[in-house]
Each structure stands twice: as C-alpha cells, then as structure tokens.
Amino acid sequence: MSSDVGRGGPDPKRGTHRAAYYYADGSDKLWTSWLVPVIVVANVAVFVVTMYVNDCPKKNTGVYGGCVARFLGRLSFQPLRENPLFGPSSSTLDSMGGLEWYKIVHQHQGWRLVSCIWLHAGVIHVLANMLSLVFIGIRLEQQFGFVRVGLIYLLSGFGGSILSSLFIRNSISVGASGALFGLLGAMLSELLTNWTIYTNKVAALLTLIIVIAINLAVGILPHVDNFAHIGGFLTGFLLGFILLVRPQFGYVRRKHRPANSQIRSKHTAFQYAFWLIALLLLVAGFAVGLTMLFKGENGNEHCSWCHYLSCVPTSSWKCNV
To answer: What is the reported pTM?
Structure first.
C-alpha cells in the first residue's frame, strides 16, 4: 500500500506509564472516564466496517497475491505486499474518507479533514493508536473531564489534517495519531502553565520531552505522516494553555489550611498571558492554514526543507516528496 501514509501513534510503552508524574494532588475527585473508551470502540467499529466494505476476496485483483486470513471471509486483509499492516486497500480508504488533497480542494470534500481521523490502515495501526489513546487519554479525562479532553482530541486531529494536506499531495493519509499527539502536546503545556503546583516537575518535563521527541523521530520514516503528528501536537500544545489551566493559589494550599477557612482560587499573571497568546496563535493558525489549503497552495513551495520533517531519505529507503 505504497500510496498510503499511515499515522503511527505515540508509543504506549514509552509515553504512558509516566503519566502519574504530571498530576500533583491526588485528593481531588476524579472524573469517570467514558469518552476515551467510546472513542476506542468507535475506531475499532469503523475499522471493522472498513474491512467489510473492502471485501478482499471479491475485489482483490491478485496482482500482489492472495488475501490474508481468508477464513475471515470478506473481512480478510489485502495481500501483505500491498498492505503490510493487515488492512484494506488504498481505494477502500479513499472511498471511506481518507485524507486526499485533491478531493478536499478541488472537489470540496472538506469533511475528509475529520473523517480521516477515524480510519486506520490496518490492524497493527489501529491497535497501536488505541493502546496509546487508552494509556494517555483515560488519565487526562479523569483529571480534566470529557469536554476538555474531547475538544483537544478532535481539534488536534483536525489541525493535524490541515498541516498534512498542505504538505502531502500524492498520498492518502489516515489515522488518529494527530489527535493523540495533540493529547501529548496538551500534557506538556498543562505542565508548563500549572508549573507551581507540581512536585518532581523537572523530571516530569524531561520525561515528557523525551517521549515526544522519540515519537516525532519515528515520523521521519517513510509512509508515516509526520505532518499530521506535528500539526496535532502544536494544536494540542496551544489548547493545553487554554483548556487545562488550574488555579494556582488555594489549590496548592488546600491540604494545609484549616477545615473552616476559605481561600479564593486564583490564577497567575503568566497563566493569563499564556492563555491569551495561545488563543491568538490557535485562531491565526487555523485561519491561515485553512485559507492556504482551500486556495490550493502547496506548503512545500513556502518551505523547501519542510518535507524532511516527514521523511528523511537514506540508502535504505526513498521519500516521495
């Protein structure tokens, strides 16, 4: 499936068991996480539907060999030479709403900027992304609730799709990893804007930066849409300053004040500054990105080196710019 660009999600083994570092006060009542499990179920269900529509035994041309796991009937996978991730064909992903620049710009199918977030290129792809979502998303939802985490997830996926469409024109891109990187970006900005209430903050910051750097570095491999990762991460990073702000005064002292005393929770000046700057950058980024996209502009013409952010050619592989 050389024409597809999969969005590989953050590594759950590297990026999730550290989550406890980022929340200082365990005495607060936690939200019940239900949205993240629903998103997981929805993604798996969409993948099953995609494989049903794919119907390899009936539609496979045989050019790349026979279907894999034929005992699954019409849910069987495309030949591994065509799709090594155990999934559908490129044409099926296209028909189901994969991200494709030409159809978005020239056929006015802007809905693909959202639909592609719910599609995956194969079993390996969907499992990696959903495991990452469970480990990262459930903890965030417990801390901040389903509304804020849901907004970060969806808007980050949307932001990743915009940046991907600006730079990748000749491939179909699918996957939820732009949204997942948005959650990682939000974790980073949440740590920074709520810096004073945390213990082990330096260790937490270094750990999170290393996790993000490793996962972004994986994106320079071929057939991985790192522009979706970067766009999702930047969107989530800005949204974290806007949606995940905690009151600094009162929150820190809660455990140390008398039971009958009251302290009005307040925010610091730098939190207000971060909130305003992030909001302006987010609005400007979406406005500029969407304007450039629907005008048909090619991001590579404005940044001649940016294609290296998504794929670095080596003696072992080539990149389709």
So the answer is: 0.86
